[in-house]
């Protein structure tokens, strides 16, 4: 394992985030956390540490992950929690993530913002920004979120959010529940606004997109559905090429045929694979509570006692394989949905999501069966058993 500021990665096949086919026989030269060059293997400079793997791809980016390694971000919004979640996520090939803080009373989300600010200042490996999922949701689509904590957005909330965190800040809200102009103001402050837990109509989504709405959270789930007379949020996300959409490819939240339909409608350049992972990531026997309800994992399904889904027991490499096996994606499409497209959704396509000179040296390393061998995060290597 290279432990150097400069090393050479030699993948048998390189998916660079740009082409439909892998590029064989390439060398990726990494220097000081950046990709210095991509050359032929024969032209790689001698004398540098070398790492050989079957497959390399742009580092996976998870826009929605709530916990891992037995802990939940909501329970302890602190940098130590983030470090554990990032470590668990690396086992599934995730190089960068947005820890997700879900609906909680009042302005509890401010503590999550503080924790991520501290993690970014400390350059905690893998922590890219923050996803706030709520509390500005539709009371008609709470999902597992505590209904009593769902509320309208207030001017004071907008002021807190506008301060930012020093990195990407993704906010999931119900567009029909916020006053006109709110999304435009948040977008102007640099937030990436997604629709989710929403009863929005097609017209309401279109209006929100005009203001700067960027996409939708966990397509098909906790949102107004596609019908013959009303396309709802599902139809709006599938039909509007301006919008990205997160997709939980676990075969539980979304049927395989629906995965394939989403890919056919939107293509790999607008779909982002997400895990929506909970404390059971890398700790399958862990149990946890949400809204006072005990959640446990049984047969890959996370649910409360009433059977209501509560996130996913899913890693990113599994999502990639499922998108291929269930959704009919090619390898290049599925890998793009885990890396290049999430980078674009966050406005970071100029520095992440490709293996090219000048980009951050963040890559996911895989075997021929797309099982994770390790990750490179801004030039730091983490190989299995991943640290």
UniProtKB/TrEMBL annotation:
<keyword id="KW-0119">Carbohydrate metabolism</keyword>
<protein>
    <submittedName>
        <fullName>N-acetylglucosamine-6-phosphate deacetylase</fullName>
    </submittedName>
</protein>
<dbReference type="InterPro" id="IPR032466">
    <property type="entry name" value="Metal_Hydrolase"/>
</dbReference>
<dbReference type="InterPro" id="IPR006680">
    <property type="entry name" value="Amidohydro-rel"/>
</dbReference>
<dbReference type="GO" id="GO:0008448">
    <property type="term" value="F:N-acetylglucosamine-6-phosphate deacetylase activity"/>
</dbReference>
<feature type="binding site">
    <location>
        <position position="144"/>
    </location>
    <ligand>
        <name>substrate</name>
    </ligand>
</feature>
<dbReference type="GO" id="GO:0046872">
    <property type="term" value="F:metal ion binding"/>
</dbReference>
<feature type="binding site">
    <location>
        <position position="197"/>
    </location>
    <ligand>
        <name>Zn(2+)</name>
    </ligand>
</feature>
<feature type="active site" description="Proton donor/acceptor">
    <location>
        <position position="276"/>
    </location>
</feature>
<feature type="binding site">
    <location>
        <position position="218"/>
    </location>
    <ligand>
        <name>Zn(2+)</name>
    </ligand>
</feature>
<dbReference type="InterPro" id="IPR003764">
    <property type="entry name" value="GlcNAc_6-P_deAcase"/>
</dbReference>
<dbReference type="InterPro" id="IPR011059">
    <property type="entry name" value="Metal-dep_hydrolase_composite"/>
</dbReference>
<feature type="binding site">
    <location>
        <position position="133"/>
    </location>
    <ligand>
        <name>Zn(2+)</name>
    </ligand>
</feature>
<feature type="domain" description="Amidohydrolase-related">
    <location>
        <begin position="56"/>
        <end position="379"/>
    </location>
</feature>
<keyword id="KW-0378">Hydrolase</keyword>
<keyword id="KW-0479">Metal-binding</keyword>
<feature type="binding site">
    <location>
        <begin position="221"/>
        <end position="222"/>
    </location>
    <ligand>
        <name>substrate</name>
    </ligand>
</feature>
<feature type="binding site">
    <location>
        <position position="253"/>
    </location>
    <ligand>
        <name>substrate</name>
    </ligand>
</feature>
<dbReference type="Pfam" id="PF01979">
    <property type="entry name" value="Amidohydro_1"/>
</dbReference>
<dbReference type="GO" id="GO:0006046">
    <property type="term" value="P:N-acetylglucosamine catabolic process"/>
</dbReference>
<feature type="binding site">
    <location>
        <position position="229"/>
    </location>
    <ligand>
        <name>substrate</name>
    </ligand>
</feature>
<comment type="similarity">
    <text>Belongs to the metallo-dependent hydrolases superfamily. NagA family.</text>
</comment>
<feature type="binding site">
    <location>
        <begin position="309"/>
        <end position="311"/>
    </location>
    <ligand>
        <name>substrate</name>
    </ligand>
</feature>
């Amino acid at each position: 394992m290279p432990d150097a500021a400069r090393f050479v990665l030699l993948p048998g096949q390189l998916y660079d985030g740009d082409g439909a086919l892998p590029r064989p026989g390439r060398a990726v030269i990494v220097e000081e956390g950046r990709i210095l060059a991509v050359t032929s293997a024969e032209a790689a400079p001698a004398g540098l540490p070398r790492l050989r793997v079957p497959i390399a791809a742009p580092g996976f980016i998870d826009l929605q992950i709530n916990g891992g390694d037995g802990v939940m971000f909501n329970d302890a919004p602190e940098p130590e929690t983030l470090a554990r979640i990032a470590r668990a996520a690396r086992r599934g090939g995730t190089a960068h993530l947005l820890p997700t803080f879900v609906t909680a009373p009042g302005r509890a989300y401010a503590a999550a913002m503080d924790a991520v600010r501290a993690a970014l200042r400390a350059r905690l490996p893998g922590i890219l920004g923050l996803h706030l999922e709520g509390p500005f949701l539709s009371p008609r689509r709470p999902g597992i979120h505590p209904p009593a904590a769902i509320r309208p957005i207030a001017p004071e909330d907008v002021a807190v959010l506008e301060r930012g965190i020093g990195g990407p800040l993704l906010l999931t809200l119900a567009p029909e529940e916020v006053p006109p102009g709110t999304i435009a103001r948040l977008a102007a402050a640099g937030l990436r606004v997604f629709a989710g837990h929403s009863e929005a109509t097609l017209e309401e989504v279109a209006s929100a997109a005009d203001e700067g709405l960027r996409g939708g959270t966990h397509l098909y789930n906790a949102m107004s559905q596609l019908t013959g007379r009303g396309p709802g949020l599902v139809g709006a996300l599938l039909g509007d090429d301006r919008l990205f959409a997160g997709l939980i490819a676990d075969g539980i939240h979304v049927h395989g045929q629906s995965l394939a339909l989403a890919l056919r409608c939107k293509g790999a350049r607008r779909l982002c694979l997400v895990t929506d992972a909970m404390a059971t990531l890398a700790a399958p026997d862990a149990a946890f509570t949400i809204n006072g309800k005990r959640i446990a994992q049984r047969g890959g399904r996370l649910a409360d006692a009433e059977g209501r889904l509560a996130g996913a027991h899913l890693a990113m490499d599994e999502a990639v394989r499922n998108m291929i096996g269930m959704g009919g994606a090619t390898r290049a499409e599925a890998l793009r949905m885990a890396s290049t497209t999430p980078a674009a959704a966050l406005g970071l396509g100029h520095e992440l999501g490709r293996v090219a000179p000048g980009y951050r040296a963040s890559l996911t390393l895989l075997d021929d069966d797309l099982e994770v061998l390790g990750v490179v995060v801004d030039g730091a290597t983490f190989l299995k058993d991943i640290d």
